[in-house]
Design goal:
It contains seven helices and 28 strands. It is mainly beta and about 425 residues long. It folds into two domains: about 180 residues, Cathepsin D, subunit A, domain 1 (Beta Barrel), CATH 2.40.70.10; about 230 residues, Acid Proteases (Cathepsin D, subunit A, domain 1, Beta Barrel). It has an eight-stranded mixed β-sheet. The N terminus is likely disordered.
């Protein structure tokens, strides 16, 4: 069979739970000491994340009375919105228009954010931001006025809603989580192709003692953990994260798993060939991660993607002009990794993106500076964490679909957004 050989593809681009289904959208408002209704919701609010090509998950929120689609990104802190001020931008979804808002307040500070796929110029302002029943007045945000980020020109979202654990030390404005008073939230993505994800605002205390394992947040600015090892199970070879370890950032806004070039080379030696026709995924090993001494593993469904589409083949310009090109269908399996070469005080940086959330129901706890993980069922129902087990193996079953590839649209891939907020810490070192 044709195969990719031993190379890992590195892309340069860059709760719904059984116990909480009946609580979806339930918000209890309590009267405060003055007798007025408190604007801060008590209990749980669960928000559906709409799936586009398994590479983008977005949800609606309101800013200045306008409905905007955004990705809720644990890898960044700020709220950035594609704006009508960006006259050279393509707007595949409605942008924010400050002229329409009755609550907009001008600031005018202009900065450059540098993301994995390119820079953007943004202008600071303030407006009312609502997510479900939660409301933040005079919330700081940034209007994108110019950018060089290709995916934004065709993305199903117009905003990046940062829900990182804290704010950059150089900025004293409150993040959205701070404004809402949210100390804990959870993210999980259903595994079936095209299925939605779920963002639950509020604690999952009832699950922690019985079903979840806790990993402390090792970073200062990001949802990062100390990772001591990465390797394919039952395959000999040097661990891809050896020595003093690596930094693993758990990031809901990155489409794939991102890793250093050297680590991808090591992994490619362990995994062996992946057939282009996807015929040998049932023979591929589990990918194991060690986070703070806890083991997690992902099956081939998480790290192999199938690219579907068509490529035009023309023998001459005349074939194109007269609409007679031959079309070659592409239906090919390749490893699903991104390349990121970045060092931190904890070692090389890895990004555990969307594939991780399809197998681990993840709760982010700002108060205790920790992350809580449960294995996730097919519909994101939390199952007890079991070392060395993915969700299906924890149930004692070998699920066929977990050895199928993830179908994607290559143009929809989102790179790590967190790079815009990484703080310098010496030459070529960033503070996580």
């Amino acid at each position: 069979m044709p195969s990719i050989g031993n190379s890992i593809l590195a892309l340069g681009f860059g709760l719904h739970t059984a116990n909480a289904v009946h609580l979806r959208n339930r918000v209890v408002q309590l009267r405060n000491s003055t007798g007025q209704l408190s604007s801060r919701p008590q209990g749980i609010y669960t928000q559906e994340l709409h799936n586009y090509m398994n590479m983008q998950y977005n949800a609606d929120f309101m800013i200045g009375g306008q409905k905007i689609q955004g990705i809720f990104d644990t890898g960044s802190f700020e709220l950035l919105v594609r704006s009508t001020r960006c006259q050279g931008c393509a707007h595949p979804t409605p942008p924010y228009d400050h002229k329409v808002s009755k609550t907009y307040e001008h600031n005018g500070t202009t900065v450059q954010h540098v993301f994995g796929s390119g820079p953007c110029i943004s202008m600071q302002g303030y407006d009312t931001v609502k997510v479900g029943p939660m409301e933040a007045k005079e919330q700081t945000f940034w209007e994108i006025t110019k950018h060089q980020i290709p995916v934004l020109d065709q993305a199903k979202f117009a905003a990046i809603v940062g829900i990182g654990p804290d704010f950059a030390p150089t900025n004293h404005e409150k993040s959205l989580l701070m404004s809402y008073g949210v100390e804990e939230f959870s993210v999980c993505l259903e595994r079936e192709s095209g299925a939605p994800g779920w963002l639950t605002w509020g604690p999952v205390t009832s699950l922690k003692e019985t079903q979840m394992v806790t990993v402390p947040v090792a970073g200062q600015l990001h949802w990062a953990a100390h990772m001591t090892n990465v390797a394919f199970a039952a395959k000999p070879g040097t661990p891809a994260c050896g020595g003093s370890g690596c930094a693993a950032i758990v990031d809901s806004g990155t489409s794939l798993i991102a890793a250093p070039t050297s680590a991808l080379m090591q992994l490619s030696e362990q995994i062996g060939p992946i057939h282009e026709d996807c015929s040998n995924l049932h023979e591929l090993p589990m990918l194991k991660f060690h986070l703070d001494g806890k083991e997690f593993e992902l099956p081939p469904h998480a790290y192999v993607m199938r690219i579907n589409g068509a490529v035009m083949q023309a023998n001459s310009v005349w074939d194109v002009l007269f609409f007679k090109p031959q079309m070659k269908k592409v239906n090919m399996c390749v490893p699903a990794f991104m390349q990121i070469d970045m060092n931190s005080q904890m070692g090389p940086v890895w990004i555990l993106g969307m594939p991780f959330f399809r197998y681990y129901h993840t709760s982010f706890d700002r108060k205790t500076k920790s992350m809580h993980f449960a294995t996730a069922g097919p519909k994101c129902e939390p199952l007890p964490y079991a070392p060395n087990k993915t969700a299906m193996l924890a149930m004692g079953a070998r699920r066929v679909e977990d050895f199928d590839p993830t179908d994607i649209d290559i143009d929809a891939v989102i790179p790590p957004t967190l790079s815009s907020m990484l703080e310098p810490h010496g030459k070529d070192i960033v503070t996580i």
